[in-house]
Amino acid sequence: MRQIQPIRSKNELVYASLRAAIIHGELAPGARLVIDELAHELGVSQIPVREALRQLEADGFITSKPHVGATVTEVQASLITEIFGLLEAMEAISGRAACLRMNAEDWHDLNRLLAHMDDLVDDPDSWSAANVRFHQMICERADTPLVQKMMDKALAHWDRLRSHYHLKDVFAQRVAEAQEQHWEMYHAICDRDVNGLERAVRRHNQAALSAYTRLLEMEIGIQGKSD
User: Fold this and answer.
1) Is CATH 1.10.10.10 what the domain over 10-72 is classified as, yes or no?
2) What would the pLDDT profile of 58-109 be if each residue is shown by its tens digit?
3) SS in 3 state form for 115-161?
4) Fewer CB in 10 Å around end: N or C, the chain?
5) CA 213, 189, 195, 143: dihedral to nearest 10 degrees?
6) pTM for the complete prediction?
């Protein structure tokens, strides 16, 4: 990990740095997190590291045990069902609110973002970042801040699982279909069609869950045979 620069608060930067390292596997599952070592590596005191570890434990990324200390939680493939169940529920909540609250200006901004995402379908990493922004924008314009915070945590766990099990190829294949489903959600919001929005959200998440579950079953099966 690189030393961080004091742009925002040190607590925020330490948390963001450690969170990213866990999500992308730089800090591997089961790795011990020693406060002194992390503070030295990040160029900060122990105080923001302790606070970051408390936040990461609340997020489910680390586990603390007496006489052992903090370790990075293991990655569980079974979480995929829970993750997409949560995403479906939260997208439905924010989408219903969006159908009621978003106005013409909001529709225009969402349309511009989706048009930009159309240009990114051959660049999965950039599209993925824009995808997060798409869901954030719906939450912001629908005024569902609690849903937005919970969705951010669920997406972070999904990013970690996707990175750990090397699901990038399937993700790349899913981008075009997912983008079409985003447009379906957009049109339902503009039409204030709550039922149509819920159907689009369900298709969006169930299709993703099905595709990734098939690959995970193959991956776990291969690992089991090689043990």
Assistant:
1) yes
2) 999 999 988 888 999 999 988 999 999 999 999 999 999 999 999 999 999 9
3) HHHHCCCCCHHHHHHHHHHHHHHHHHHHCCHHHHHHHHHHHHHHHHH
4) C
5) 80
6) 0.84
